[in-house]
Amino acid sequence: MTDERDADRHEFSSGQGVDADYEEFTLDPPELSVDPTTVDPVDSRVLTDELDRRNVASDEVDVEQLIDVGLSYMGINRFEEATETFERAARFAEEDSLEAQEAWTNKGVAHAELQEYDRAIGAYEEALRIDDDSEHAATAETNLAYALWEFGRHEQALEHAERAVEIDPRFAQAWYNRGFFLVERGLAEDAVNCFDNAIRLGFRDAEVLEEKARALEEAGEHEQAEEVADRAEELRRETEAELVEEHAGGGPMGGQGDGPAGGRRGGPMGGQGGRQGDGRRGDRESSERELQGEGPEGF
């Protein structure tokens, strides 16, 4: 006896089948090409960065605009977000390009603002690995010198400060840092020449005069040291009066220049970052977009 269910069974089409290279559907997550030996296992950004590379083509990302976003974060003291933005810019930039170097340099500045000097050092070293004689190299070198000093690696700090001056002899901040390190090494007369160079190049504020006075004192030029110290104090009072007047008039409070001021006195300066003019080197003293960083006085 035939089963009625067999008689009523529907005959399905056998279809066209599938190609040999058909990839079956799965709900499993994709395998990501991350080498676990090269990443921090607790770094939550690894997955985000890997998905960025998988889902967003490098030519679809405006790296310069991404750097601008990072600089905007710096301008409002959101340094952690800035480090992430600059790192993303570096990853999307063409490998070993000037844009990548610029992003790494600014990433170092952001880390220094957070007092993460070991990570700042790593960022500056990566920038210099790309090109140690480019338009961003002097900035990376003097910032590296500052970070090394804060990290306790004082001898290396002087080496990189001297390298910054060699790359760009018109970089006032580099001359200042070199002068500071020379005073610390007991080379006061050479330090005075460095501070004079910084002043001639437009770096005229109380901090550089105070450090010059200290160098003159160390060199035994007590009378001249006292005169320079008096000028430094006079200039500081003038600056403070200008800030009070600016605040009373409704203007924004700030330090020197256009960025956030640094903190402690009596040390080298770091945090030289930002875009150089139109995104290239330009005039370091006249750039309106230079950032000040976590340094004794900023710049």
Q: Which term fits the overall shape? A: elongated
What is the CATH topology classification name of the domain at 61-153?
Serine Threonine Protein Phosphatase 5, Tetratricopeptide repeat
Give the CA-CA distance, first to last residue: 98 Å
Profile the largest sheet: 2 strands, antiparallel
How would you describe this structure to a colleague?
By secondary structure, the chain is mostly helical. Among the domains are: 61-153, Serine Threonine Protein Phosphatase 5, Tetratricopeptide repeat; 169-251, Serine Threonine Protein Phosphatase 5, Tetratricopeptide repeat (Alpha Horseshoe). It contains twelve helices and two strands, in the order ααααααααααααββ. A two-stranded antiparallel ribbon has the order 1-2. The longest helix has 27 residues, at 222-248. It is elongated, with a radius of gyration of 28 Å. The relative contact order is 0.09. The model is unreliable at 251-265 and 276-299 (pLDDT under 50).
